[in-house]
Amino acid sequence: MTDKAILALMIHPDSREKGFRQLMTAYQQRLYQVIRRQVSSHEDADDVLQNTFIKIFRHLDQFEYRSELYTWMYRIASNEVINHHKRLKRSKTVELNNHDFRFADSYLNTDQLADILQYIVSTLPARQQMVFRMRYYDELTYKQMSELLQLTEGALKASFHHAVKKIEKEIKAKQIS
Amino acid sequence: MQKEDKLKDELKDVSFGISAKQTIYAPKGYFDQLPDRVLDRWKTEEGKSIPRTISIRRMIATAAVISGLCVGVTWWTNQYTFRHTNNEISSEDAYQYITEHIEDFAPMILESGRLTEEIHTEIPQSTTIEEYLMEEMEGEDFESIF
To answer: Under a CB-based contact definition with an 8 Å cutoff, are residues A25 and B32 in contact?
Structure first.
């Protein structure tokens, strides 16, 4: 089913539920992958994905057909990931700040490392955070990002550069010297 | 683009080799259940935003508030009307007002003086008045009137 047909179903109250189902069936796996790569557990990804779909349903009337439907949904998912990390940051700040990261490599598994990276990314300013996530996790091109965020490619490159440098600095500071 | 790749490589070097593009699979059956779960949640959340049936207690409270407002508005309107329809002024106040705003009355005074002059006539002599009255009485005795 095309995006246009799905949207047509969702606009009419009688067929709205059917439209929502079609939309979720069509995009749930792609959006799940986008979100799951940026959160540390399936439960978190499930929570963020549900929030994303609820927001999509609620704000469907604000979709202006200026971009692809997936692009619009991707932007909502990205915002939800950032919100999720903001919430986590509040609860994890103390835990991670008090944690001694200077262990031998064998003590850290991939999930823990991913958590550390996520934590550091979540401390970046909102724009740098979003640009970094799109470029590093989702490997979007600057052109795609430019369409998504309505920013110039030059500005996006600068944001990504600053983000990477800050992350490097933080990670180096926490590694064994 | 080379600069970009260099940046990403640098980051991978320092970030313990975390794989950003690892494909992570959802638990089996997750996507079969997700639409139902999301729709249930959406219906619940949307339902909360729609006002439920109004309880009798709330209706009474609303009626009381509306009645109070009506009484208040009526009382205020009456007070306002009373004040504006019973605005009698004492002679002292009127005199003081006129004294203080005498210049406002100057044109009226001038106008009044001109009219007085215009209607001023000579006072007739007393004999003329007697003659006039005699004519009016047509010979009747004056004293019979009293």
So the answer is: no
Q: Residue written as tokens 């509040």? A: A90
**CA separation for the pair A135, A38 (Å, rounded):** 12
> Would you call B38 helix, strand, or coil by DSSP?
helix
CA distance linking residue B107 with residue A91, whole number of Å? 85
What distance in Å separates residue B70's CA from the closest CA in chain A? 39
Rounded Cα gap, residues A85 and A82, in angstroms:
5
pLDDT at B11: 55
What pTM did the predictor assign? 0.56
**DSSP notation for A117-166:** HHHHHHTS-HHHHHHHIIIIIS---HHHHHHHHT--HHHHHHHHHHHHHH
* Inter-chain residue contact A17 with B39, CB threshold 8 Å: yes
The C-alpha atoms of residue B68 and residue B74 are separated, in whole angstroms, by 10
Average pLDDT in chain A: 82
Name the closest residue on chain B to residue A134, using Cα atoms. B20
| Residues B52-70: b if buried by 16+ CB within 10 A, e if exposed | eeeeeeeeeeeeeeeeeee
Q: Report which residue type is found at B69.
A: L
- pLDDT, residue A60, reads 86
Write down the residue that tokens 């009747």 correspond to.
Answer: B140
| Count of other CB atoms within 10 angstroms of residue B48 | 9
User: Which chain B residues touch A50 with a CB distance below 8 Å?
Assistant: 34, 37-38, 41
Q: Does A21 contact B at CB distance below 8 Å? A: yes
Measure in Å the smallest separation between the Cα of A136 and chain B Cα atoms: 7
